[in-house]
Design brief:
By secondary structure, the chain is mainly beta. It has a domain at about 15-55. The chain has strands at about 15-20, 30-35, 35-40, 50-55. Pfam families: WD40 (PF00400).
Length: about 55
């Protein structure tokens, strides 16, 4: 097993992140937070692709 290291740093949530999920192809990440937003992040390029507001 490789040593863990920080690969990417994503910043946009305004509150505590409570959930994360990788896509099956590991090319995207979805994060959910107490700020009632979901973010869909592609790994390349490192930008926020979509913001979904009002999730429960």
């Amino acid at each position: 097993m490789e040593d863990p290291k920080l690969e990417k740093h994503f910043k946009s949530h305004r509150s505590t992140v409570t959930s994360l999920s990788f896509s099956p192809n590991t090319k995207q990440l979805v994060s959910g937070s107490l700020d009632a937003c979901l973010f869909l992040w592609p790994f390349k390029p490192q930008v926020r692709a979509y913001r979904f507001v009002g999730h429960n």
